[in-house]
Each structure stands twice: as C-alpha cells, then as structure tokens.
Write a structure and sequence with these properties.
It is a single chain. This protein is mainly alpha-helical.
Length: about 190
C-alpha cells in the first residue's frame, strides 16, 4: 500500500510540474526526461538497499544465516529480493524502455507528428511507476480514452483532428493508481 501511495505522490508531483510548464512557470520541458532517468536511478538504489538490508536481516538470525555468504553465494540474496520485491518493476522497466525507444523512433521517422519531445518520457515514466500488471490496464485506459476522445471530436466537429496525448499520460496514470487503491479496499467479489 505504501508503494502505491508513493507512486501516486510521484505522479502528482510530476503532473504539477507539467501544469507549471503549461502555464509558463517552468521554462524547460527537458525536466521530464531528466525526471524519468532520475526516478529509475532512485529505484535501482532502493533495490540495492533492499538487497543489503535483506542480507543483514538474514545474517542476524540464527536460522537464516545459512542463506548468506559464506554458506550461500550473495547472488542468492539478489535473486530472492528481485523475485519477491522487484520482478514487477523489472518487467515494467522493460516495457517502459521498449515504449520509449519505439515511440521516439516512430516519432522521428514521421517528423515528430505523433508526440512532443518529452511525451514519450511521460508515458514511459507512468508505465514504470505503475509496475506490472497495472501498466497494462493503464495502456488500455490511454488507448480507450484516446479513441473515445477522437470519436467524440469527430462527431462534434465533423472532421478529423490530430489527437495529442500530452495531457493524458499522467492523469490517466493517477486514475489507474486511484482505481488500484480503491480495489484493494473494495475487492470485486
């Protein structure tokens, strides 16, 4: 639950920065690219800390001290922490990097027709922070909302209009986390 609330706080702060950028209080949009890499770096540091913390906890116990060196290789602790605490984020990191590379490549190939320069970083950041499997729901929300918006605009204006996801990435990620937290307290039984 704490991880969800921290994720929500991070997304709200970045959304606030996006609003400040929109109103001209923030001059450089490159901050979103830097924030993406900074948050990944911090997540890696947290997992390294968890690895050493788990090793220390096991070392202190008379029973579990056999799970750390010299009895077992340190890689056992690393794989334990990754499989129990980090696998969802490892999967979402892979998905975020794939999304980032593909969206930047397609955008450059089509002369930046689809995204603003920082937009792939906003989408990738949301994918990473939401973690697996929630980023899959998020992508469904983004595509569904984008499709509904395009149909609505087409029906109202009677013309095709370019659809920008620029201001959808973070609000829909925040919405996904709120739904995730709500489902924890109100399971669908």
């Amino acid at each position: 639950m704490v991880v969800f609330l921290i994720s929500l706080a991070i997304l709200l702060i970045i959304f606030l920065l996006q609003i400040l950028y929109f109103f001209g209080f923030l001059k450089k949009a490159k901050i979103f690219k830097s924030l993406f890499w900074l948050i990944i770096f911090i997540a890696v540091l947290i997992f390294i800390y968890l690895i050493f913390l788990q090793a220390k906890i096991w070392q202190e116990s008379s029973f579990s001290r056999f799970l750390v060196p010299p009895y077992k290789p340190f890689s056992f602790v690393i794989f334990y922490v990754l499989s129990h605490f980090g696998m969802n984020y490892l999967i979402s990191l892979g998905a975020a990097l794939i999304f980032l590379i593909v969206s930047i490549s397609f955008n450059n190939f089509f002369q930046k027709r689809f995204f603003e320069d920082e937009e792939p970083y906003l989408g990738s950041l949301a994918i990473f922070i939401l973690s697996y499997p929630y980023f899959l729901y998020y992508l469904v929300f983004v595509l569904g909302f984008g499709l509904l918006r395009a149909v609505f605009i087409y029906l109202i204006k009677k013309k095709k209009n370019r659809l920008s996801f620029y201001y959808l990435w973070l609000p829909l990620a925040i919405f996904t986390i709120i739904i995730k937290i709500w489902l924890i307290f109100h399971p669908l039984n």
